[in-house]
Amino acid sequence: MLPSANLSEKYENPDGETINQCQYCAFCERFACEYDAKATPDVTVIKTAQKSDNFTLRLHSNVTEIIKDEDDDSKVTGVKFTDTVTGEEFIQPAEIVALTSYVFNNYKLLAVSDIGEQYDPETEEGTLGKNYSYQLHSGATGFFEEKKFNTFMGAGALGMALDDYNGDNFDHTDLDFIHGGLIDQLQMGARPILNNTVKGDTASWGEQFKEESIKYYTQSLSIGGMAGTSPHKNNYLDLSTDYNDIYGKALVQMTFNFHNQDYARFEFLNNRCEEIMTAMGADSVEVKPTPENYDIVPYQFTHNAGGTIMGADPESSVVNNWLQHWDRDNLFAVSAGSYAHMSGYNATLTVGALAYRCAEGIIEYSKSPGRLES
């Protein structure tokens, strides 16, 4: 089974927060829960923190820069942020700064604040922006002429996962790639229009499209294969020299494409998905085409990784295994940017584990400031 934040019955967690029973409303996949039936931070962590006198939630605010200590090059002194409603700029002093704005913005804040050495693909020196990784989503869709499924019902992570072809769980002797990927069959609640599933030779509009959209809404199933891309010296993040954001800060520029290992995993998982869907009795099966190059359209994943990678020394990484920045002792960065490479799973659970690890590090640092030991 897949790990899920949805609850099958009402539950009070150790912090005293109540999480309600899932209603299977089919509007869960990428959305907050109106029933408070999802164990997400807005229902659990933030509500608990708001009961404390040591927490302030500041909405409509955008941090634009990390402020370095002019007298101590091993420290930062806070952040600069802008109120996005009034346009006012503020300085927030801090004894400890934790970046938690995920891969791209964590990278950007470090880069525009000139903290760390930018990775150079020509010399392969520097670490900031290095090892940007992503995922490839292969899969197969089966069309059933007689069988029907309740695909209109679902929850955010309702489904089954097959790990037989993930990581090193299978024999690679005759294969030309390392690692592997997850195969899953999900029922997250097919949203109308966006999830219209029709055969590949169907027109994208008109009477046939409407008829087949209605028919196959409950008479099709898809199996997905999720494989991480390998880190490559030519895949990295840096700052644009041509474009700035509304605050005058350089935008993040991503240089990325798929490589041979990535394509090999994609095609291998595609074939496995086709075999499984055929065995399920589909009357016809269509597999995903192999992409020629990376393209942001259509949407694929929000599973980004790398750019602020974690490691054992400052020569090859940005943060240590406490997520503490090598150059600034009181600066921490939490996200999948810490990953040296992407895996065959979503990034979320490991990011959660790293957040706990980082929190422990921050507590230790607050007791005894300095470089934390691994």
From TrEMBL:
Alphabetical keyword list: FAD, Flavoprotein, Oxidoreductase
One GO molecular-function entry: oxidoreductase activity, acting on CH-OH group of donors
InterPro entries, sorted: FAD/NAD-bd_sf, GMC_OxRtase_C
Superkingdom of this protein's organism: Bacteria
Segments forming domain Glucose-methanol-choline oxidoreductase C-terminal: 231-355
Keyword Flavoprotein among record annotations: yes
Entry similarity comment: Belongs to the GMC oxidoreductase family.
Name of protein: Gluconate 2-dehydrogenase alpha chain
Organism: Jeotgalicoccus aerolatus
Species classification: Bacteria, Bacillati, Bacillota, Bacilli, Bacillales
